[in-house]
């Protein structure tokens, strides 16, 4: 069958789809990935076929995040959702998210043209790209979302519907109406929630982290893909000290950790270096330049794919990003997490800590000394290694991308017009 992925043009959105796209290709299916013209290299670098979508002006501000890391400083916690805590601002969050989802509306004509010309059987789309569901319906293709984090969009939609119903509100008061009408009216289509939430949803999150929603989910183990790079020589060297990775991710708010906590990166490095470890910090050049003296047991690097680095590590320190969490789980590495809220980082951190696979240090409580002491616990208390192994076994019970392929084949046959 022909499978079209439609992806939001950001590294953190492309990487999660790669293992499933590979699995579909390896099973003999024809796979293409529609993405912004200036982000096609994210797809082709992964060995996948890219289809440029829209013009360069559309979503150009989003694409720039991949090349200008300084823009990450402008991100905030507007869409962070922690359903385990009170969420008093959910209406504001839902309205804001509908504005983000509307950013893809201008590419709908190009998507419709692509679907009508190439005739995919299945369209798998980023939850930020509901225009892909509309194009799939026009072309008669089956369509489903593929998540990259917890399902904030579906949870906020459910809250909104419940609230609107309790008020007796009409369609004109539903934020989804303003989002979907510009897409549907030109094609004479009526709205239903499949166009916002998919005919089903591929969910790479651990089942225990899934939000309580009555939707058809297909679980898929998140096989971490972090890009490709040449293995550095030093990574092949054995070390007598435990190796520890400090990373703040490739997107989101991780790189704001030091600013938000009031603890400088040099202080963190100095404190961690007091332990008998080898610290590998994958950090951008601006933060590296602030460290005037680099201890002998510290290595500051620009970027090393976690799939290369983590198999050699005894612990990882990070901000709670879903991709980093998944990579740590896959390599059974205990995690020390200081969550920086952007989407669901608090939930991720608590999940790792509750299963004994790591420790959580809130950013408001972060000090260099506390981070050092908690890392010492991770490295010396065997329970954390056992917890990481148990979390790995839990994830291994979830179907792999290859195991999901026949499920997608059956669902496509069922839902394709």
Could you describe the 3D structure shown?
It is a single chain. The two termini are 14 Å apart. The mean pLDDT is 91. This protein has 19 helices and 13 strands. It is globular. It has two domains: 2-221 and 399-415, 3-Layer(aba) Sandwich (Rossmann fold); 233-396, Rossmann fold. By secondary structure, the chain is α/β, with parallel strands linked by helices. Helix 2 (18-26) crosses helix 19, helix 5 (90-101) packs across helix 8 (152-167) and helix 12 runs parallel beside helix 17 (368-380). The chain has helices spanning 11-14, 18-26, 40-44, 60-63, 90-101, 108-118, 131-139, 152-167, 175-184, 194-197, 257-261, 265-272, 285-288, 306-309, 322-330, 345-354, 368-380, 382-396, 401-415; strands at 2-6, 30-35, 50-52, 122-125, 142-146, 201-203, 217-219, 243-247, 278-282, 298-301, 315-318, 335-337, 358-360.
Work out the strand percent: 5-15%
Q: Mind describing the biggest β-sheet? A: 7 strands, parallel
Multimer state = single chain
What is the CATH domain class of the largest domain?
Alpha Beta
CATH topology descriptor of the largest domain: Rossmann fold
The whole-angstrom Rg is 22 Å
**What CATH architecture of the largest domain do you see?**
3-Layer(aba) Sandwich
How many domain units?
A: 2
How would you state the average pLDDT, rounded?
91
Strand order of the largest sheet: 3-2-1-4-5-6-7
Shape: globular
- How many E strands? 13
Percent in helix: 40-55%
Rounded to the nearest angstrom, the distance between the terminal CA atoms is 14 Å
**Structural class, from secondary structure content?**
alpha/beta
The CATH superfamily title of the largest domain: Glycogen Phosphorylase B
Uncertain stretches of 5 or more adjacent residues:
none
Helix count, DSSP H or I runs of 4 or more residues: 19
């Amino acid at each position: 069958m022909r499978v079209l992925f439609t992806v939001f043009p950001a590294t953190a959105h492309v990487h999660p789809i790669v293992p499933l796209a590979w699995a579909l290709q390896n099973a003999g299916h024809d796979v293409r990935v529609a993405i912004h013209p200036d982000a096609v290299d994210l797809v082709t670098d992964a060995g996948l076929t890219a289809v440029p979508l829209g013009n360069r002006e559309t979503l150009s501000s989003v694409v720039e995040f991949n090349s200008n890391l300084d823009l990450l400083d402008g991100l905030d916690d507007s869409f962070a959702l922690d359903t385990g805590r009170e969420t008093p601002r959910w209406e504001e969050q839902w309205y804001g998210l509908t504005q983000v989802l509307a950013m893809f509306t201008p590419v709908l004509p190009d998507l419709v043209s692509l679907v009508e010309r190439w005739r995919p059987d299945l369209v798998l789309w980023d939850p930020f790209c509901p225009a892909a569901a509309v194009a799939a319906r026009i072309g008669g293709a089956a369509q489903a979302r593929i998540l990259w984090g917890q399902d904030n969009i579906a949870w906020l939609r459910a809250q909104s519907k419940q609230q609107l119903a309790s008020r007796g509100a009409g369609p004109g008061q539903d934020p989804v109406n303003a989002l979907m009408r510009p897409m549907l009216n030109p094609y004479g289509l009526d709205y239903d929630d499949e166009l916002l939430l998919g005919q089903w949803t591929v969910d790479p999150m651990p089942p225990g982290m899934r939000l309580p929603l009555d939707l058809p989910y297909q679980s898929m183990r998140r096989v971490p893909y972090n890009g490709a790079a040449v293995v550095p020589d030093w990574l092949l060297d054995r070390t007598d000290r435990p190796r520890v990775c400090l990373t703040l991710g490739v997107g989101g708010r991780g790189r704001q950790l030091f600013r938000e906590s009031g603890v400088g990166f040099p202080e963190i490095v100095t404190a961690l270096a007091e332990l008998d470890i080898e610290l590998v910090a994958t950090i951008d050049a601006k933060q590296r330049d602030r460290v005037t003296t680099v201890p002998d047991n510290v290595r500051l690097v620009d970027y090393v794919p976690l799939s290369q680095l983590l198999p050699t590590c005894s612990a990882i320190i990070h901000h709670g990003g879903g991709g980093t969490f998944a990579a740590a789980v896959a390599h059974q590495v205990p995690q020390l997490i200081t969550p920086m809220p952007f989407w669901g980082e608090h939930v991720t951190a608590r999940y790792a800590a509750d299963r004994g696979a790591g420790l959580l240090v809130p950013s408001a409580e972060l000090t260099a000394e506390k981070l050092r002491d908690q890392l010492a616990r991770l490295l010396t208390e065997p329970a954390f290694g056992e917890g990481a192994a148990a979390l790995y076994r839990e994830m291994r019970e979830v179907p792999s991308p290859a195991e999901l392929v026949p499920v997608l084949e059956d669902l496509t046959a069922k839902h394709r017009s």
